[in-house]
Here is the input.
Amino acid sequence: MSQVYDILVVGGGPGGLAAGIYGSRARLSTAVIEKGRPGGQTATTEEIENYPGSFGDVSGPKLMDVFAAHAEHFGTKIIKF
Here is the structure.
């Protein structure tokens, strides 16, 4: 059986994951479709210096893991293809 979503976000970069968080927090069935690792280009960047919420030695992969976990915590389904 197919799943029907209220919101379907194409792209799992920081913006896509944020959209997933807001959709799920609004109690809408939300999925993010991502072809690779959640986080987009940020997930491949080792040194993050000027991103909100990043202090000191946070890496892109670590920050995007937190983003993805945050989205999933609220119920966002991350679909990898």
Observations:
- The chain has a mean pLDDT of 90.
- The chain has one domain: 7-80.
- Residues 7-80 form a domain with the FAD/NAD(P)-binding domain fold (CATH 3.50.50.60).
- The chain is about 30% helix and 15% strand.
